[in-house]
Amino acid sequence: MSVQKGKVYLVGAGPGDPALITLKGVECLRQAQCIIYDYLASKELLEHAADNAEIIYVGKQAGSHAMSQEDINALLIDRGRHQVVVRLKGGDPFMFGRGGEEAQALARAGISFEVVPGVTSAIAVPAYAGIPLTHRRHSSSVAFVTGHEMAGKEDSDIHWPELATGVGTLVFLMGVKNLEHIAARLLAGGREPGTPVAVIRWGSTGKQQTVTGSLADISEIASASGIRPPAIIVVGEVVQLRSELNWFEQRPLYGRTLVITRAREQASEFKRLLENLGAQCVEFPTIKVVPPDTWAPVDEAIKALPQHHWVLFTSVNGVGYFFERLSQLGEDVRALYRRKIGAIGPKTAAALSSRGLRLDLVPAEYRAEAVVEELGEEEIRGRRFLLPRAARAREVLPERLRQLGGQVTVVPVYQTIRPGQQVAEVRQLLREGTVDCLTFTSSSTVENFAAMFPGENMAALVGETMVACIGPITAETARKHGLQAGVVPDDYTIEGLAGAIVDYFSKS
């Protein structure tokens, strides 16, 4: 008996917020050899894919289908015979997602498949708008209805009279274009004209937009507000609770679009922090962290560790790459026995502490000059210092140490390069004025940002967009390129930067 190698996983991507996918869904994405994804599935989820996975877009938008349903079914069957395939669908595969049809096609073709349920937008989107679908005082029943039926359809599958008065809360998916027709059918079926209604677009994402009204006027209100698909319609008394329970849209950075220029490997923590504050983040990494061109100077420095009195780390990247090379050479933390260890910044200090090291120096101010000030001339003169750091970095620290009589060995344990992606997209966003804040977390992010727009007048390109820099040195680099920083925190950390951005927008 032969074992079939292929298998298709019908995976629910959730309502839009990429954090709402299930753990099993993420596991399937990591194992997939082929991922076939929809328009409403967050592209961020594709970051879980293996580097060699085949990625195929088959999204459907109003008036624009990348692939017909028949072709999608054929593609699933073709890839599913010999590969592990993830069919990534917005919301839940079996909730108006045609997942049942795709599962039937696979079953009839003899292709093995599994269904991985997703958080359906029918429930999650109202929750993000502050609307519980059931409530003891307002509704004890709920119905999910497709809103995609044509207004003139003769044989409707929807029993409008019973639906209008027989269910407490009604949730219509894909119904914005038919909103006037839906309201009319419910009114004709006996629903009260004053029944509260909410229309929620791009729910659970930073683009979420919610309008409310009643059955009598919601069509006019939604049209005036420019509400377009994708959106969900909620009908019922529970909509009144939004005024009290609207948590998502009350966050301090809600409705703000921020560009993150940090390296993608480091951006996730900063992005998560900003998104938790309500911001919509555009990742535009201006640097990519990679190993140095050669490890020879690092290897020599590691061999000479017993000759050094101090090892000073200036970044988390420096810590990571130094210890990675230490391990590759068959060494471990014991190689730093009896060496004094210093770190600039709490994140760098935490990276060292997590490796079991006790630190001898963490300056109160997170910059190179503060290291020299806190060490003092007596501790520097005649001492040997090792600085594992980026290939390109400020020379202030090694120069000051040498001026005060220290012997300094600088070794590049990593370097930063310019990725050169998304330039056209970010240029357009800036020119349209849709970016509220441009963030820089190091001088190199500023330098590379400017280099990615050759010939551009930076001040004119950025326009009214607020520029936020992690510290005064980064702000000075921005100024040299024609960018005036509107936000520079007192605490030179990403937490400090996020807090300063919140303070700025709360006052503006």
If you had to describe this structure to a student in words, what would you say it looks like?
With 508 residues, the chain is of the alpha/beta class. 35% of the residues lie in helices and 20% in strands. The chain contains 20 helices and 22 strands. The strands form five sheets. A five-stranded parallel beta sheet has the order 3-2-6-1-7, sandwiched between helices. A five-stranded mixed beta sheet has the order 8-9-12-10-11, with helices on both faces. The chain is elongated and about 90 Å long.
Task: Please sum up the structure shown.
With 508 residues, the chain is of the alpha/beta class. It is built from 20 helices and 22 strands.
The neighbouring-strand order within the major sheet is 3-2-6-1-7
Going by helix content, strand content and strand pairing, the class is: alpha/beta
Summed over residues and divided by their number, the pLDDT gives a mean of 92
Helix content: 25-40%
The end-to-end span amounts to 70 Å
